[in-house]
Specification:
The protein is α+β, with helices and mostly antiparallel strands. It contains 7 helices and 4 strands, in the order H-H-H-H-E-H-E-H-E-H-E.
């Protein structure tokens, strides 16, 4: 029991260290923090450089952050591994931006269409497509999106993007499309 607790603590520490190491030490990021209301030690110099580094479009984002957001919102197809319905890290990162968009636009609606490749029975693939669409729906709801803004549907294997019987084609067909 004591070993298990030590293991859990060690894993938590490793995750905290990993998250901390992901933080950028780029000087542009540091100067941008002054735009978010954080005080800088070189107040006016860093404040004016932050303003010149990021064209203020009223959203408080730097040009790089705005580009990342726009790229994420342009991602409307999320792919899955064979016989799986769990979201990749890349999909989760993009879906955070989609969630922010939906929360900022309460009248916006998303239809989440789940798909599967042709392997498996028609019934199984319909259920798998549904699980995939629901995985995206649940993730958006966890991010604070209203369930009224989301609709899920499964097409199973019925609407393949690629009709070939290769692994590459199958990979393209295992997806959720956001409309």
């Amino acid at each position: 029991m004591q070993t298990f607790k030590a293991f859990k603590l060690g894993m938590a520490l490793m995750m905290a260290i990993a998250l901390a190491s992901c933080a950028s030490s780029d000087t542009e990021d540091m100067s941008d923090s002054s735009d978010m209301g954080m005080e800088s030690s070189s107040s006016t110099a860093s404040s004016s450089s932050a303003t010149s580094n990021a064209a203020d479009m009223g959203d408080g984002l730097t040009a790089r952050e705005r580009q990342q957001r726009d790229d994420a919102l342009a991602m409307t197809v999320f792919y899955f591994e064979f016989d799986r319905s769990d979201l990749s890290a890349e999909a989760r990162a993009a879906l955070v931006h989609h969630a922010n968009y939906l929360k900022s636009n309460p009248s916006a609606r998303y239809r989440l269409e789940g798909h599967a490749d042709e392997r498996g029975t028609r019934e199984y693939n319909l259920a798998l497509g549904e699980r995939r669409a629901q995985a995206v729906e649940r993730y958006l709801q966890v991010q604070g999106v209203s369930s009224n803004q989301l609709e899920t549907i499964s097409y199973g294997e019925e609407n393949p993007v690629d009709t070939r019987t290769t692994e590459a084609a199958y990979a393209l067909n295992r997806r959720v499309e956001v409309h």
